Amino acid sequence: MVQHAFFTNKSEGAEAFGSTCPAIEEVEDILIDLGFDRVFQMRAIPATPRTPGLPAQYHYRDRKGTEIIFLSGRDTPMPTQSFPEHAARWWIYPGACPVTANLVAQTLSSHWHLQWQSTQSIQKRSLEQSA
Known about the structure:
3 helices; alpha+beta; 6-stranded antiparallel beta sheet
């Protein structure tokens, strides 16, 4: 799990599963203060008898290309994946300034006790579990 100084210029992204799901207004206040703008959002899609529901998602980007994705609800894994119990899911992809990605990861962690993992390590673990 990653708490500090994780991102480098060539690093992959990181993701975290949250045990709580903060209100989007709370998330957005923090991200706007850190220089991010919302660039995309998708409303929640209800479950059907054939497909699981999708939580609302919000995408943010700063002027140096760092991206934050916030899934406001429980994400359902694909058949080859397994996820820990969670109420929200987060991703960070560093842009031209990895210091920003580190600052955001630390700030979000301090508010919602997030434990960041490299997206590459998550993908590797999912592949190992499906083998």
